[in-house]
Design a protein that fits this description.
Layout: H1 2-25, E1 44-51, H2 63-80, E2 89-92, H3 102-115, E3 121-124, H4 141-149, E4 156-160, E5 163-167, H5 181-194, E6 200-206, H6 215-218, H7 221-227, E7 233-238, E8 250-252, E9 256-259, E10 266-267, E11 272-273, E12 285-292, E13 297-303, E14 308-317, H8 330-336, E15 349-352, E16 358-363, E17 373-380, E18 383-391, E19 401-405, E20 413-421, E21 431-436
Parallel strand pairs: 1-2, 2-3, 5-6, 6-7, 7-9
Antiparallel strand pairs: 1-12, 4-5, 8-9, 10-11, 12-13, 13-14, 15-16, 16-19, 17-18, 17-20, 20-21
Helix pairs in contact: 1-7, 2-3
Length: 437
Amino acid sequence: MISNLFSQFLFKFLTGFFSIVFGFMAVPFVINKEPPKAPDDFTPVLRFAVTSDVHLDGDPQQPAALRLAQLFEDSYAYAESENYKNLDAVVVVGDFATSGSDEEYELFNEIVNKKIKDGTEIIAVLGNHEFITYRDYDASIAYEHYKQLINEDVDRHLVINGYHFIACSYSEDGKTFDSKKDWLNKELSSATKENKEKPVFVFQHPAPFATVYGSVNWGDFTVRTVFEKYPQIIDFSGHSHYANSDPRTIWQGAFTAVGTGSLSALMSNLNYISGDEDAPGESGAFWIVEADADGNVRLKLYDIVSHRFFEKNDYYLTDIAKKSSHLYTWSNLKSLDTAPVFPDGAEITAEKNNDGNTVLVFPNAEGYWETEDYKITVKKGSDEVFATTVVSNYVRADLTQMSVDIDKLDPGEYTVSITPYSPYAKGGKTLKGTFTV
């Protein structure tokens, strides 16, 4: 039995491994090539919003519940400000609930029914959290719950304004896609046969393994092995909560993958991120996706907390079916990266908060991409008294400076060094200062 299980594991691992290797080999190695910008006359014929990991807990005053409602309001407001005024769909890529309870489903439906307008399709797939209440005795009950309260079909293939949308829930075990491989293949084959050049939008909870930021820790092998055959795919996934303001949350190889972050709290490799002192909580972002009649696609990232778009996360995808046109590869985006630089005259100040802790305040460093993290070292004389690496506030589109709590310090004079690092680990010039407690 053990030998058989090991053989199955080894087979799956090797299948996924070689699929990934050959997927990378199939894509030309491009560096230092700027991706195109959306032209001024870009005219959408399709617009939808996509998010994930809302984690409703049944409380209508929960910050994530308020943000989900705000997503509808802000998306409609944006649509009204454009020539193409429609919002054709809102997609939630799993974990709209925290545990799958009745109260969480009821709150989701209450928000959607109150905020959605005619002409907007709601699409939601089952992530892992919708199964939690039932997993100990029969995870498949989550399917029946979903069918009664959301939609009769746990997996859906829709066509909206000529574009195919394929939404796939977890298998009935709530943690794999083993039973969905054939269905995905069939639907993707059908969608791409109709028009081999046009993008096909795909939605499922965990990212295809080794694609977007967070997918090595939280990704899925099965969907990747399916997607490798279809360069037309633009896939949206969640699960990791990893910050979608990080450029690594868009990836192109044998297909295109996009991470959706979270409406409840965003993360990085280090920890939760908030942009203020109350981590986690004060962060959330979602994508506005637009497509024109020729199959060109624009992705615009929206900060739900500050109600504005992120300037550097505006991506334009063209010739999606041609792998040679895929410029959002890891290697190309890394080659464009530059070390972050603090602004001229930047200074570090120190102040005490209500708890008596020292808080360092300093301006954001900027590079080609936003700074991902800062390495901070504080010394008293020659003795190091504090050292840490903190995630930047790049999950917020409105914050221009960092505030870092370094705990209580004894009275005296201190020196501090702060080094910024880009998402691709390029270190900038260290900012130094002194302060007295």
